Amino acid sequence: MNHRFVFIGAGNLATRLSTRFQEKGFSIEQVYSRTEDSAKALADRLQTAYTTSPEDIISDADIYFVALKDSAFQEVLPKLDIQNKLLVHCSGSMPLSSLEAYSENIGVIYPLQTFSKKREVNFSEIPVFVEANSPENEKKLLQVAGAISEKATVLDSENRMYLHLSAVFACNFVNHFYTIAGELLKSKNISFDVLHPLILETSQKVQAMEPAFAQTGPAVRFDKNVIAKHLNVLREFPEFGNLYEIVSESIFKFHQNK
């Protein structure tokens, strides 16, 4: 495979995905970003060209990867002139059909992972989900995805949305809870590091059993005394108190129905 790629976007996902493709021998011909700092930073990393103007995106690449926030699709894609080349988005929440107005050849490559520009990941172990509007495009994207991951498979738009929603609960919401825990500890000058063994054991436990069976804590048994004590402490943090009550009630009701 000697495909030539353009990346439309220069954020966390675009950085990690383009870097991985380049490591596997694919040619990154150009990077687009709305801001010059972001575009130049990724282009310098890849030693390639960049632009901040959608109208200046080259038209002779083989695959165009759209790694933008969903709301930016309408700002950028109508300005493209890619002559029906393969246009691929990397979003978990956007359907394949969102690209239909911009090319006759469209697809999705969605890596299920949380990415940061400065943190390396083992891409070979990341599940990558592919969808396309024709068998030919699907085959091509499976080959491309298979070059960077050992876990490339086909998944349609509806199921990808459920997958993305599940990932938000499992990753984004959980990380927000880590942030809250950190704020509570910081208020008493306790290092967040003390939670590391607990976080590690929790993550390992749900890989060995169903998450519902791994649930512990005062909410699952509705220990009113402990919950009342926690809520009393959280009077200092009212924005967290409401969240504590909602989540505790959700945990209790879920396990009561099991």
What can you tell me about this protein's structure?
- The protein has 258 residues and is α/β, with parallel strands linked by helices.
- The chain has 2 domains: 4-155, 3-Layer(aba) Sandwich (Rossmann fold), CATH 3.40.50.720; 160-256, N-(1-d-carboxylethyl)-l-norvaline Dehydrogenase, domain 2 (Orthogonal Bundle).
- 46% of the residues lie in helices and 15% in strands.
- The protein has 10 helices and 8 strands.
- It has helices at 12-23, 36-46, 73-76, 135-148, 157-186, 196-205, 211-214, 218-221, 224-233, 238-256; strands spanning 4-8, 27-32, 49-51, 63-66, 86-89, 106-111, 127-132, 151-154.
- Strands 3-2-1-4-5-6-7-8 form an 8-stranded mixed sheet, covered by helices on one side.
- Helix 2 links the parallel strand 2 and strand 3 (49-51).
- The chain is elongated.
- The mean pLDDT is 95.
What can be said about this structure in brief?
This is NADP oxidoreductase coenzyme F420-dependent. The protein has 258 residues and is α/β, with parallel strands linked by helices. 46% of the residues lie in helices and 15% in strands.
